[in-house]
Specification:
- The protein contains 13 helices and 30 strands.
- The chain is α+β, with helices and mostly antiparallel strands.
- The protein folds into three domains: about 120 residues, OB fold (Dihydrolipoamide Acetyltransferase, E2P) (Beta Barrel); about 130 residues, OB fold (Dihydrolipoamide Acetyltransferase, E2P) (Beta Barrel), CATH 2.40.50; about 325 residues, Endonuclease/exonuclease/phosphatase (Deoxyribonuclease I, Chain A, 4-Layer Sandwich).
- It has a nine-stranded mixed β-sheet. Strands 20, 21, 22, 23, 24, 25 and 28 form a seven-stranded mixed β-sheet that branches. A six-stranded mixed β-sheet has the order 18-19-17-16-30-29, with helices on one face.
- A hairpin with a 2-residue loop joins β5 and β6.
- The chain starts with a helix and ends with a strand.
Amino acid sequence: MKLSIFTLLLLSAGSFGVSATCQTETPVAAIQGVGQQSPLLNKTVSTSGVVTAVLYPGSKAAGVLLQSLTPDNNPKTSEALFIADKELARTAKPGQQLQVKGKVDELNGMTALVDVKTSVCGQQAAPTPFMAKLPVQSTQDWEALEGQYLSFPQALIVNDTYPLARYGEILLADKRLWIATDLYRPGKEANQLEQQQQLSQLWLDDGIFEQNPDPVIFPDGNLSATNTVRIGDTVQNLQGYLIETQQGYRLVAAQRPEFVATNARPAAPKAKAADHIRVASFNVLNFFTGETAASPFPTRRGATDANELQRQQAKMIAALSAMDADVIGLLEVENNGFAERSALATLVRELNKALGEQRYAFVQPQQALGGDAIKVALIYNQHKVTEAGKAVMITEGPFAYGSRAPLTQTFKAKSTESLFTVSVNHFKSKGSCPDKQSDTTDKGNRDNKDGQGCWNQSRVEAAKALTAWLKTQPTAVDTPHQLVIGDLNAYRQEDPIYTLEQAGWMHLAPRGEAGHYSYVFRGRTGSLDHALASKSMAKHLTLFQHWNINADEPAVLDYNTEFKSKAQQQSLYAPDPFRSSDHDPVLIDFKF
């Protein structure tokens, strides 16, 4: 049976040596000191205090937290200490006063006593928690509270749930935290914002200390497909014990906090007017049907078996069905052609089946689709628009060595005869940085620590090449109404987006409005998915929205079955739009 710290706090005491009174030769605060490291490192000391919590039970790292009953009233020194002893962790009971003698050590940055001898010398009620608050003034503030029992009177905001199902962790902060370059141009201002945000966050640990807990105990009532915890939700009545690990400081929950769904799921996107045209962009997160016989790409991504493929497909179709879009740009579709069992043909066939009519068709360019295992694609509502040009792709320049080949087609709105061109794009990602040793000329593509990650120069070159190409009206239809959509792998204020705007493209998301986002990465919210229009196209805009069905949701609610018990494979999955991808779709409405 898996035990969380909530139950461990109730365990009965085992056998100890017992002494009549507690002797404190060296106070806990003196052992901790005012710096990152104990001033008594490697010295043998004797101290006493009350047991507040048991950590890592059953593991080699097990021990207890000991808190002083005679604080020194110096706010720069912690009043708690980790006693590293797995036998003590097995028998200790919170509330016991212990006399402890041992050697001072730093375990993953946390001051501790090792090689200990202990004896029980009394019983004491749990100490009153110290009232903490975010943001802290500096990281040293955490060091001064290391090991202590803390309470947060303020409501805190969930900012990351990626490791929730694997490690029982949630990132909390006093506000929603943003990708700095989504709000500021790269460099000084962006870096300053990120440094400030580091002081606003703290990881919450469920206290189970096992991988893949079943059930996942956050939020209240345990995590499930219908009982989620979303980025932007609120946590109240938080109490716990501050520890330090190799990954930094975290709060081990002393009780289940209260979760409030302040960022409720949006059941559907905002409705589209009957006489408007809706264009959407959606990253379908490696939709691979595995039809490699007709594909030069034997490496399979996405679903790993037929069961996962069915689960992935159901969630994707649920999302696409609800968009009510007339043109949809798709990203991360398997690049395995257009035959009946190809990924794109399967997607359209299943989408029409779900809708009960032959509503959608896919665009099929005549040229090669590029050398990547994934491609971009376009599908359209045949009842509302028709193809009016020659579907084209560009595989030259930056699109030959990084960014996926963009696909461009012109459509005619049936109700108004208006012509508009849509180009769907997927620029090179920020990962897999160039080798610093072998690549001495590619400085612009390295991570230059300005917030833009790697391959920034390649994305800038893609933005320039795309602009030049679209100026030639490549579909052979001359129309001033042009639209660039897709995952540009750059946040709003980064160089690639800035390059497009400087070239005359109008970003359609309201400027300065932090409510627009499509992606959450390492506890930071921003948008990698954009829509930019020519000036004439932008004049017809009536609505821009991100439908936030994915980025805010725990990743474990996706279609994958890995690291889940058989019960969790059922309870954590639903054939609904939520966590159908890791990106949120973009929807843009126009009236011609």
